Amino acid sequence: MITSHGTLEVPREVTMSNPCIICVAITGSLPRKENNPAVPITVEEQVESTQAAFEAGATIAHCHVRNDDQTPSSDPEKFARLMEGLKKHCPGMIIQLSTGGRSGAGEERGGMLPLRPDMASLSVGSNNFPNRVYENSPQLVDWLAEEMLKYDIKPEIEAFDLSHIHQAVNLSKQGKLKAPLYVQFVMGVKNAMPADKPTFDFYIETLKRLAPDAQWCGAGVGPNQLKLNEWSIAAGGHTRTGLEDNVRLDRDTLAPSNAALVERAVALCEKYERPVASWQQAREILGLGQPA
Ligand SMILES: [Zn+2]
Question: How far is the CA of 103 from the centre of ligand 1 (A)?
């Protein structure tokens, strides 16, 4: 039900007893030191930034790696060093590696999956990005999904479009994804789905109708980050923040750290009376085992 203020009204029991998982997307492929000096680039910076975000309340670390010149990389050796540092300094935190398309092409995008992270991102369809087509052929999607099953990795489905939610449910029903289904609604990417509240509500309705056991998360890009954080937390879902999606606190202020963006999501959880999920709760909600 939508109130006169346009916010989603959710029964109190849905929020109060429902921990919110906060994911921090620490680096991404695009933001550079020139955009915000707090963007962690080296593995050492990434570990330090993630540890502060973990202590602030984030329980999933969504990770990309970079070359020394800040360009995106899909080097499994770098991912391995990052995982080692995160396991040591953020014990229990869920490690999610990106198989997104900016750091490589084709099967190169899944080259780090044999490292067996807890989770990996999985795009299940194509769409436009600001300056190009984000291409995810059915063959590549099937291959990535098979690799994730083989290495016992839970996918986070990246839904840039409504059809991606349907496709995620199809793959899940075919047993191609480790259950329960976990879908992230991504909004505000230029030339893809804008941050549109009725569409967001319909995403939730559609996922719940097709896959009642699914869990979902909302992520917004740029100024839409805060909006998606608030919509998701208010509606009983999980949420993602971090410098990958947005380097600012507001129009005039750069975010001083990933942790500062996590603190903002934590404050929204307080506003909507959502407990912030501990890493143990996050692992239970997502059907993940305890850390190795
Ligand atoms: Zn990413």
Answer: 10
What are the backbone angles phi and psi of residue 150, rounded to the nearest 5°?
Answer: -60, -40
How many angstroms separate the CA atoms of 205 and 165, rounded? 11
Q: Please tell me the distance between residue 100's alpha carbon and the centre of ligand 1 in angstroms.
A: 6
To the nearest 5 percent, what fractions of the chain are helix, strand and coil? Answer: 40, 20, 40
CB 25 within 8 A of CB 62: yes
- The yes-or-no verdict on residue 204 having pLDDT over 60 is yes
**Is the Cβ–Cβ distance between 109 and 74 less than 8 Å?**
yes
Secondary structure (3-state) at 177: coil
Q: What is the average pLDDT value for the chain, to the nearest integer?
A: 93
Q: What is the pLDDT of residue 100?
A: 86
For residue 99, how far is its CA from the centre of ligand 1 (angstroms)?
A: 8
Q: Ligand 1 centre from 135 Cα, in Å? A: 15
Which residues are within 5 Å of ligand 1 (an ion), measured at CB? Answer: 98, 100
Structure confidence by residue, pLDDT tens digits, 147-156: 999 999 999 9
- CA distance from start to end of the chain: 42
In the three-class reduction of DSSP (H, G, I as helix; E, B as strand; rest coil), residue 73 is classed as strand
15 CA to centre of ligand 1 in angstroms: 27
- Reference 199, options 231, 168, 234; nearest CA is 231
Distance 170 CA to ligand 1 centre (A): 23
pLDDT (mean) for 205-211? 98
* Nearest-angstrom CA–CA distance, 65 and 40: 10
Ligand 1 center from residue 91 Cα (angstroms): 22
Q: Which two tokens stand for residue 201?
A: 């509500």
